[in-house]
Specification:
The structure holds 2 protein chains of 2 kinds.
Chain A (H helix, E strand, L loop, with lengths): L1 H15 L23 H13 L16 H13 L1
Chain B lengths: L14 H5 L5 H7 L9 H5 L1 H8 L3 E7 L4 E5 H18 L6 E5 L4 H12 L3 E4 L6 H11 L3 E4 L4 H5 L10 E4 L12 E3 L21 E7 L7 E6 L2 H11 L8 E4 L6 H13 L3 E6 L4 H11 L3 E4 L1 H10 L1 H5 L8 E4 L6 H11 L3 E5 L9 E2 L13 E2 L5 E4 L13 E5 L9 E2 L3 H5 L2 E2 L2 E10 L5 E6 L4 E3 L2 E3 L1 H8 L5 E11 L3 E10 L7 H14 L8 E4 L13 H9 L13
Parallel strand pairs in B: 1-11, 3-4, 3-5, 5-6, 6-7, 10-11, 10-12, 12-13, 13-14, 26-27
Antiparallel strand pairs in B: 1-2, 8-9, 9-19, 14-15, 15-16, 17-18, 18-21, 20-21, 21-22, 23-24, 25-26
The chains are: A mainly alpha, B alpha/beta.
């Protein structure tokens, strides 16, 4: 689980932060914190689907589900098991 | 500048009463301004409100996603905008020069906006999520001399600063002392500076350029819509009559000041009325939003259809967990508000969202559902008093019959209309037909005079209430090493009304798979903006073109919307 979270965290840092020195942790609010907006969420969802060979239905890709690395990792685990 | 007494309406006046004997001089009278006198938006939103005895009243209730809070009174706002204006003057910025504000919704953005106007420069707010190409295009076009930004965005500016020889200053409002600044960069600790109590506001006139907002069209790069200080007349009166702002209101506008709603109604309109406004510098979170309304006892809320539809997805039960009884008037802007959202808001909040129609070029609301007016769910409402509107045939400039579809047109002459596009007057003139300014939106008018939106009359993509031009996206796509040709069109979306879809042909040796799709999405998101990022990409062998080789987007767009493609006789590869 930690590897999964670390991969997602690094991806978010690299792709969505203008300043990669900004503090970002597993619990940092991404959507409600304005780091990833609802438009960018589409590319983040696509990354997860490509990387982990899963399909996340649009109904499950809510701002809450994508709000932290913790919640995203939980979502990925759920769909990997499905 | 003279101070006049402020007439406060104590009861809602009907639309028909407003129409009777309407004259824009009413707004001038209430603002205490006479033709020929200096007129400065920065002064009117701060000094004048203080001179009316409201200096101690909260002007800005600010909060961010971490829960950090700050409150600024109108007197704080007056002094801090003075401080900002004088600091810019000392930096060497002069009247008429363009100063870009490239920040999240931090207090410095709101203070800076009015400060720039007070010292007579032109303020150019840009959405902080813009990528480096979008930023460069707009700064280069405007000949911007100074950009004010945050530490978190300064790297983006550094990537393009060498290609902007006219950019003299990069001002960082929250500079981190551990990160050395580079050439042309200056730190500004606004709250650490001694406050300036007395400042001589630049004597701008009604026609002096004030705000430069960039907006997209079908062809060419984005155009700088040039507003003037006189726009405050329209913004003041529409905020008062349409948003129904009264002095004891607490008002919340969801829009970012990188877009025109965020300045016309997120800064000028409410503060010219002396109204307290709340700002939440955070992304979307339904619970957080409701908690924010509950906490600040928000009374008037100006939102957008995409946000409302996101709230709808969270359900009405969530609404009932909060005390939102303070809300008394709700409005929406950005794209047509669907009937379901109007009905849902009545069920969830006990009152409907009132749709309002306007655009960057109009500067203020021009067609609207007035307070007290019967709301026809799905309709844009009726023209604001003083606005002569019609639905015309874009080929002839003649009004179409009632119920027929044409394009929305406005007779020029209202105070908030832009005066031109920056360095592109021909582009602005081209939007006029037969004495009408043509908005580019198709609509019809019913027997009661209500306007009903049908769609765009051009290739511009309206996504989440923001207009995105296909040319800018296609130009950026061509910079990707794998892309041979592309066409960007609107694709229907239940949440955002439309999203960008790119049809792409690849160069030999590249494969159009899911990884390529993601790579192109991120490429555009970082170069332009998340709004411009194609949410859908289709790799095809060949794009539809005319005999002369011009890509025909309408075929692809029609395909996306399941509409007939029309006359294909000119297609060379059909």
């Amino acid at each position: 689980m930690d590897d999964l979270k670390q991969t997602i965290l690094e991806y978010v840092k690299h792709e969505y932060l203008d300043d990669e020195d900004e503090d970002l942790g597993y619990g940092t609010p991404l959507i409600s914190g304005g780091i990833v907006d609802s438009f960018s969420m589409v590319s983040l969802k696509r990354f997860l689907e490509n990387r982990y060979k899963i399909s996340i239905p649009d109904a499950e890709a809510s701002p809450e589900a994508f709000d932290t690395v913790d919640s995203i990792a939980a979502l990925v685990v759920r769909f990997k098991q499905a | 500048m003279p101070i006049r007494s402020h007439r406060e309406d104590t009861m809602t006046v009907t639309y028909e009463e407003r129409l009777r004997n309407f004259d824009w001089r009413l707004a001038a009278d209430e603002l205490g301004w006479h033709q020929g006198e200096p007129l400065n938006i920065g002064w009117h939103c701060t000094d004048r409100i203080c001179a009316r005895g409201l200096g101690g009243k909260p002007a800005l209730l600010w909060e961010d996603f971490r829960g950090e809070e700050r409150t600024y009174t109108f007197d704080d706002l007056r002094q801090l905008t003075n401080t900002f204006a004088l600091w810019l003057e000392d930096l060497g910025v002069g009247p008429g020069e363009r100063v870009c504000l490239f920040m999240d919704r931090v207090p410095e953005l709101y203070i800076g906006f009015l400060g720039v106007l007070k010292m007579g420069a032109i303020v150019q707010p840009l959405f902080s999520a813009f990528g480096e190409d979008s930023l460069w295009t707009r700064l280069d076009n405007a000949g911007t001399c100074t950009i004010v930004t945050q530490q978190k965005h300064v790297r983006k500016v550094r990537k393009i600063v060498d290609r902007l020889p006219g950019l003299r200053h990069v001002v960082v409002v929250d500079a981190d002392p551990s990160k050395p600044l580079k050439e042309r960069e200056t730190a500004l600790d606004l709250h650490g500076l001694p406050r300036v109590d007395a400042y001589t506001v630049h004597p701008t006139g009604a026609e002096t350029p004030s705000v430069l907002h960039y907006t997209s069209g079908t062809t060419g790069q984005p155009k700088g819509a040039q507003h003037v200080h006189m726009s405050i007349l329209g913004q003041y009166l529409t905020a008062k009559w349409v948003l129904d702002l009264k002095e004891d209101d607490v008002y919340w506008c969801n829009a970012d000041p990188g877009w025109v709603t965020g300045t016309s109604y997120g800064i000028i309109g409410p503060w010219a009325n002396g109204v307290t406004q709340a700002v939440l510098d955070a992304g979307f979170n339904a619970e957080h939003w409701y908690r924010f309304i509950q906490k600040h006892r928000i009374t008037v809320w100006y939102s957008a259809p995409t946000a409302i539809r996101l709230l709808m997805k969270e359900g009405a039960d969530l609404v009932r967990r909060f005390d939102l009884s303070s809300l008394r008037h709700l409005c929406s802007v950005g794209e047509p508000l669907n009937a379901e959202a109007v009905v849902w808001s009545e069920q969830a909040f006990g009152r409907p969202f009132h749709d309002t129609f306007w655009q960057t070029e109009t500067g203020c609301i021009v067609i609207t559902n007035f307070p007290g007016m019967k709301v026809k769910p799905g309709s844009m409402g009726r023209p604001f008093p003083g606005i002569e509107a019609a639905v015309i045939d874009p080929k002839t400039g003649q009004e179409v019959e009632q119920g027929k579809v044409g394009v929305i047109a406005l007779r020029p002459g209202w105070p908030s209309q832009i005066r031109t596009y920056w360095n592109n007057d021909a582009g602005f003139r081209a939007k006029h037909i037969g004495g009408w300014y043509v908005c580019g939106d198709q609509a019809s008018i019913d027997k009661d005079g209500y306007y009903w939106f049908v769609g765009r009359d051009d290739d511009v993509i309206n996504t989440g209430g923001h207009l995105v031009g296909p040319f800018e996206i296609e130009s950026a796509l061509l910079e990707h090493p794998a892309v041979a040709e592309s066409a960007a069109v609107a694709s229907p979306c239940a949440l955002n009304m439309e999203v960008v879809k790119a049809f792409v042909t690849l160069k030999p040796g590249f494969v159009g798979d899911q990884d390529m799709e993601l790579e192109i999405m991120n490429f555009i998101r970082k170069k332009l903006s998340p709004l411009a990022m194609p949410q859908r990409i289709e790799f095809i062998e060949q794009l539809p073109k005319t005999r002369s080789g011009k890509i025909i987007r309408r075929v692809l767009r029609a395909q996306e919307f399941g509409q007939p493609v029309g006359d294909l006789s000119t297609l060379m590869n059909d």
